[in-house]
Amino acid sequence: RQGVVVITGASSGLGLAAAKALAETGKWHVVMACRDFLKTAKAAKGAGMAEGSYTIMHLDLASLDSVRQFVDNFRRAGMPLDSLVCNAAIYRPTARTPTFTADGYEMSVGVNHLGHFLLARLLLDDLQKSDYPSRRLIILGSITGNTNTLAGNIPPKAGLGDLRGLAGGLRGQNGSAMIDGSESFDGAKAYKDSKICNMLTMQELHRRYHEETGITFASLYPGCIATTGLFREHIPLFRLLFPPFQKFITKGFVSEAESGKRLAQVVSDPSLTKSGVYWSWNKDSASFENQLSQEASDPEKARKLWEISEKLVGLA
Ligand code: NDP
């Protein structure tokens, strides 16, 4: 039978490109889990995705109620779940004041990490029930959360500290909106921190569930897709210069189509079944197991992050 893959944030950029790449194989039905139904419908049509090869379902990761509702709707639709891709993200690089999710958590960490944390935890049951030969749960990482690389060392550097801000609920008022508890808000750092959370969560899922369930847990850095909507809030000069900078100087640039193929590989390639891996691609577009920074692979921090996140999303 066809596999069923849920991709969050499939309305643009990498998520859309991967949705298209998977649907085109004919082997996958793609559930596009998105906050803007109309935008997603237009995007899927615009990308030339064949009718019937995808289903759009509403999911706003900035609301934990919406996450729970999505899971209910998905289950009611009666489809199996064979692969889940936690791809959606927001990036507010120039923000100096926080914004908040429906549940009152700082937006970057609330959407990129907490919303996905709840979604992944709830849908684990569904993945477990699937009879698909290779079931996978994939969470997008980023080089920016990787302080062992050049790009990961561009300030402000990611750093979760002792997670005191997260434990305090990332509320901002009378507390901190930053995971490490800093008083001042930095949107660029909040994004990088959220990506570290994504990579730590993938590894903790692997430690807790891989042996018992056989599910493959993986993360990836798809390359720098400098043209996506992710950079929409950046200053205009940055948006103008970033793509050529990545193309010609760092040579880390990848097109949306190429990045979509990479993510599709992590979903479906029979050779990428190893669990607990952070995939990257070399200059010849060959995948390899990449090393994570010390913080992004710290098991003690991953455990602590897991426990605090469970409380914040109402699972503990
Ligand atoms: P885009 O901005 O193009 O796509 C982000 C997607 O997330 C959009 O579909 C957006 O929906 C969705 N989204 C944002 N907020 C929410 C929300 N509250 N609920 C549901 N969906 C939401 O970015 P990219 O394609 O570049 O990024 C995709 C992933 O790739 C991210 O995880 C990012 O961290 C990662 N990544 C990107 C890199 C790059 O160079 N671009 C490099 C490394 C990693 P909407 O269309 O409605 O805004």
Structural class: alpha/beta
Radius of gyration: 18 Å
Separation of the first and last Cα atoms: 37 Å
Proportion of β residues? Answer: 5-15%
Please explain how this structure is put together.
This protein is of the alpha/beta class and 316 residues long. It has nine helices and eight strands. It has an eight-stranded mixed β-sheet with strand order 3-2-1-4-5-6-7-8, with helices on both faces. Helix 1 packs across helix 8, helix 4 runs parallel beside helix 6 and helix 6 crosses helix 9. The radius of gyration is 18 Å and the shape is globular. The termini are far apart. NADPH dihydro-nicotinamide-adenine-dinucleotide phosphate (NDP) binds next to helix 1.
Structure keywords:
single chain; 316 residues; alpha/beta; 41% helix; globular; binds NADPH dihydro-nicotinamide-adenine-dinucleotide phosphate
SSE layout and pairing:
Layout: E1 3-8, H1 13-24, E2 28-34, H2 37-46, E3 54-58, H3 64-76, E4 83-86, H4 107-129, E5 136-140, H5 164-167, H6 187-213, E6 216-220, H7 236-250, H8 256-268, E7 277-281, E8 287-289, H9 299-312
Parallel strand pairs: 1-2, 1-4, 2-3, 4-5, 5-6, 6-7
Antiparallel strand pairs: 7-8
Bound molecules: NADPH dihydro-nicotinamide-adenine-dinucleotide phosphate.
